[in-house]
Amino acid sequence: MAQKNEMMVCRNCADMTMHISNPPNNLVHGIITFLCVGAWFPIWMILLAIQKNPQCTKCGRISENNPTSKSFGKFVLITVAVLFLLGIGMCSSILSHSH
Ligand SMILES: [Zn+2]
User: Fold this and answer.
1) I want to staple 40 with a disulfide (CB 3.0 to 4.6 A). Which of 33, 62, 68, 78 is the partner?
2) What is the mean pLDDT of residues 64-79?
3) How far is the centre of ligand 1, averaged over its atoms, from the C-alpha of 81 (Å)?
4) How close is the Cα of 68 to the center of ligand 1, in Å?
């Protein structure tokens, strides 16, 4: 797993600390997008957009840079669920056609 490290101000530590984040595995998503003939692409983009906020390595606190991220995250989760079902539907219809 490719971890991203960056120095950020932690509100809990009240100091500049090392934060780690786990960006989505772009190779895996690229393969899925290819297999689904691009149907996975919007989901991949949303996963990139909603990736977990960086976590403080000192106290373990997840940084909340964006106060609106929680309600936005809910909205995105619903969108992801809908797109996910659409993606599965498209994938299965493509697979059934190739039979
Ligand atoms: Zn901290």
Assistant:
1) 33
2) 64
3) 32
4) 21
